[in-house]
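sorry for the late reply, my laptop died twice this morning and i had to redo everyting from scratch. anyway the thing you sent over, i finally got around to it. pasting the sequence first so we're on the same page, its 125 residues, then the predicted structure underneath. double check i copied it right bc i was rushing
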Amino acid sequence: MKEIVVSFFLLSGTFFMLIASIGIIRLPDFYIRMSVVTKASTIGLGLVAAGAGIYFNTLEALIKVLAIVVFIIATSPIAAHIISKAASEIKVPFWDRTDLTDYREASETPDPPQQKKSSYGRRKT
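ok and here's the structure:
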């Protein structure tokens, strides 16, 4: 039974990491890529670490897994926010379909935001 639970956690975590990897390649702009990397890889790493903690089933492993998960959950969103803010400051363009209403109304953003035309989601002729 333990092997089934561990396998579920490991496969689920690997699936989320696969989704993050595909998102890096397939999504249209930097900011959307940052979002998927932050969310999917954090969840994936948490599930893989939980699977490892269940497999080893010791207090030492539990403490290490909890430390890893807490550190990743605490640092990953902050790092993504800082990187995205830096990209905004150097005017990395947004995807042309991005709704920038809130961005334009914010007081701490560089103006005007740039948008790039992309062929993402369009049929190739």
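Residues 1 and 46 are 21 Å apart (CA to CA).
thats about all i looked at so far, will dig more tmrw
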